[in-house]
UniProtKB/TrEMBL annotation:
Name used for this protein in its record: Succinate--CoA ligase [ADP-forming] subunit beta
Entry EC number(s): 6.2.1.5
Organism: Azorhizobium caulinodans (strain ATCC 43989 / DSM 5975 / JCM 20966 / LMG 6465 / NBRC 14845 / NCIMB 13405 / ORS 571)
Domain ATP-grasp: 9-254
Domain of life: Bacteria
NCBIfam families, per database record: PRK00696.1, sucCoAbeta
Keyword NAD: no
Cofactor: Mg(2+)
Keyword Chloroplast among record annotations: no
UniProt: substrate binding residues: N274, G331, I332, M333
Length: 400
């Protein structure tokens, strides 16, 4: 689960991280009061969307101006103007895709006198099962570009969970950033603060880009991007309350209600599969034969008929879906359960696009018989390769 920058900063502040004063704005009428509360003389008006590249982004609407999604204001009137231009309009960045995201929240923050910009992040390193720090002197830039062009400017290290965060970790951060004296001490404290916040709240990623040194030699968290491990949110109802569903795909929200692993994609063939590995293979083979998947959907190993029905309804709710491939290998999941779920869903929502079903495993003959007896126009498949070729051919035939 992602949260907005202003929410991330408020959370980090409770742990003692140095952040600028700021006020979230959800309506145009709140702009003046927020600006006067902060006092100026420099304000930063920031779009709050779950995507990076806001400063370099462009609004679709001409009335929003061409100054991007992060703007410097030098008067209360300019703050009000920027809020009026940005709020409710669509910002397109390198991470939103061409559709962009509507800006429903803004964050007005006091300006900072920047001396130097750095990059600092924490993430879960799956290869070591540890929390790792990634540090670079190249703050304010895309870390992927830094890694590609100048990888020697990135320093990373992991923290042993048995010993936890130690003073030498802070020294590693300070050394990587070239900090000494009081700034090195500040870096040591910040390192401990961020690690504690990360582990306490079950974060999956914490990115600060940039971390700055001000003209008066103070470290400050100027931006913050936080992602939480969704599997751990049951432990943090306070964090779950920060979820902004307007930033998420409605189909993904519906899928989460049924504990379905669903990710919307931009293709034409809807997929319902059990098992993440099989689902990825299904997506790959659809691409191999010339079409693109409309989703990743793993119904899991022990899905009920209700869950399968919900999954099918979610797939068919996508107007881009021109065909559906059901690919089930029954182990824990039984093929007859899948078959009944598909029939229940088709009965409820109707079937307007080609449907290919490949079943194999536990109760496979019962499942196939249920589908044969249904009278539905379902295309049977013998294996994954056969299924992929048939659904691609059926979609292309419909489009012709």
């Amino acid at each position: 689960m992602n949260i907005h920058e202003y929410q991330a900063k408020a959370l980090l502040k409770t742990y003692g991280a140095p952040v600028s004063r700021g006020v979230p704005v959800l309506a145009v009428g709140e702009a003046e009061a927020a600006a006067r509360e902060l006092g100026g003389p420099l304000w930063v008006v920031k779009s709050q969307i779950h995507a990076g590249g806001r400063g370099k982004g462009k609004f679709k609407e001409p009335e929003a101006g061409d100054k991007g999604g992060v703007r410097l204001a030098r008067s209360v009137e300019e703050v009000k103007t920027f809020v009026e231009q940005m709020l409710g309009n669509t910002l397109v960045t390198v991470q939103t895709g061409p559709a962009g995201k509507q800006v429903n929240r803004l964050y007005i923050e006091e300006g900072s006198d920047i001396e130097t910009e750095f990059y600092l992040s924490l993430l879960v390193d799956r290869s070591t099962s540890r929390v790792s720090f990634v540090v670079s002197t190249e703050g304010g830039m895309d870390i992927e570009e830094v890694a590609h062009s100048t990888p020697e400017k990135i320093v990373s290290f992991s923290v042993d969970p048995a010993s936890g965060i130690q003073a030498f970790h802070g020294r590693k951060v300070a050394d990587a950033l070239g900090l000494s004296g009081d700034l090195a001490k500040q870096a040591g404290k910040l390192t401990e603060v961020l690690y504690t916040a990360f582990t306490d709240t079950d974060m999956a990623m914490l990115e600060i880009n940039p971390l700055i040194v001000t003209k008066d030699a103070k470290l400050k968290v100027l931006d913050a991007k936080v992602t939480f491990d969704s599997n751990a949110l049951f432990r943090h109802p306070d964090l779950l309350a920060l979820r902004d569903e307007t930033e998420e795909d409605a189909k993904e929200i519906e899928a989460s209600k049924y504990d379905l692993a669903y990710i919307a994609l931009d293709g034409t063939i809807g997929c319902m599969v059990n098992g993440a590995g099989l689902a990825m293979a299904t997506l790959d083979i659809i691409k191999l034969y010339g079409e693109s998947p409309a989703n990743f959907l793993d119904v899991g190993g022990g899905a009920s008929e209700e869950k399968v029905t919900a999954a099918f309804k979610i797939i068919t709710s996508d107007p881009n879906v021109k065909g559906i491939l059901v690919n089930i290998f029954g182990g824990i999941m039984k093929c007859d359960v899948i078959a009944r779920g598909v029939l229940a869903a088709v009965t409820a929502v109707g079937l307007k696009v080609p449907l290919v079903v490949r079943l194999e495993g536990t109760n496979v003959e019962q499942g196939k018989q249920i589908i044969r007896d249904s009278g539905l126009n379902v295309i049977p498949a013998d294996d994954l390769d056969d299924a992929a070729q048939k659904i691609v051919a059926a979609v292309k035939k419909e489009a012709a």
